[in-house]
């Protein structure tokens, strides 16, 4: 039983660590190679549909509420606490729910790291934490032209929520049919 719990936690930490590493490395590469507002089309023929565009998002999802990203950071921290508290309660064999938790954790941590890093960068010039927080931002760069610019952390959160929603729908559907619930993937 104890080894099972350790394996479950190792899975969460592994998925989250991989997602955070991928997110932070990709953001670093964007910051090092593109000026803010600059775009690069890795496939020039598709430039009308996809580019890497360096954006500093001080808001919440899709750049809404500029300057209030710090509020979203608090929501991220609450979600992280919720994952740590709820994760041990996920039934054995529900690997898709565990994967979803790891992806959501990766995305939350990736964007929290950005906001903490940029708050620290602005702290001296802003004069106080409260003045620096509205200047905190995340680095976004995937630009598909018909959607706001996003990053790997956002992709992790959306993927995790989609997997969790799919899992919950399958459980509900299976229980409604009177069948035993199994993960199935």
Can you put this structure into words, describing what you see?
- Helix 1 packs across helix 3, helix 2 packs antiparallel against helix 3 (95-126) and helix 3 (95-126) packs antiparallel against helix 5 (152-176).
- The chain has helices at residues 2-33, 69-86, 95-126, 129-132, 152-176; strands spanning 39-40, 51-57, 138-143.
- The chain has 185 residues and is mainly alpha-helical.
- The radius of gyration is 19 Å and the shape is globular.
- A 3-stranded antiparallel β-sheet has the order 1-2-3.
- It has 5 helices and 3 strands.
- The relative contact order is 0.17.
- It has one domain.
- The model has no long low-confidence stretch (mean pLDDT 90).
Number of domains as seen in the coordinates: 1
Rg on CA atoms, Å: 19 Å
Shape: globular
Name the poorly predicted regions: none
Whole-Å distance between the termini?
Answer: 22 Å
Mean pLDDT: 90
Task: Write the H/E string, N to C.
Answer: HEEHHHEH
Q: Residue share in helices?
A: 55-70%
The structure class reads mainly alpha
Read across the widest sheet, the strand sequence of neighbours is: 1-2-3
Per DSSP E runs of 2 or more residues, the count of β-strands stands at 3
- Largest beta sheet, briefly? 3 strands, antiparallel
Q: Roughly what fraction of the amino acids lie in strands?
A: 5-15%
Number of helix segments? 5
């Amino acid at each position: 039983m104890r080894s099972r719990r350790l394996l479950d936690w190792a899975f969460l930490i592994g998925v989250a660590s991989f997602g955070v590493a991928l997110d932070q490395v990709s953001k670093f590469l964007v910051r090092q190679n593109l000026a803010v507002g600059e775009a690069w089309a890795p496939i020039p023929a598709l430039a009308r549909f996809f580019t890497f565009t360096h954006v500093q998002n001080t808001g919440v999802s899709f750049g809404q509420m500029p300057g209030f990203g710090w509020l979203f950071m608090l929501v991220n921290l609450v979600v992280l606490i919720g994952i740590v508290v709820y994760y041990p309660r996920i039934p054995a064999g529900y690997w898709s729910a565990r994967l979803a938790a790891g992806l959501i954790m990766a995305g939350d941590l990736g964007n929290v790291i950005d906001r903490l890093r940029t708050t620290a960068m602005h702290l001296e010039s802003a004069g106080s934490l409260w003045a620096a927080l509205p200047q905190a931002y995340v680095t976004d760069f995937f630009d598909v032209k018909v959607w706001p610019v996003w990053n790997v952390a956002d992709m992790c959160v959306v993927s995790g929520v989609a997997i969790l929603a799919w899992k919950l729908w399958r459980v509900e559907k299976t229980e409604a049919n009177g069948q035993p619930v199994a993960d199935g993937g």
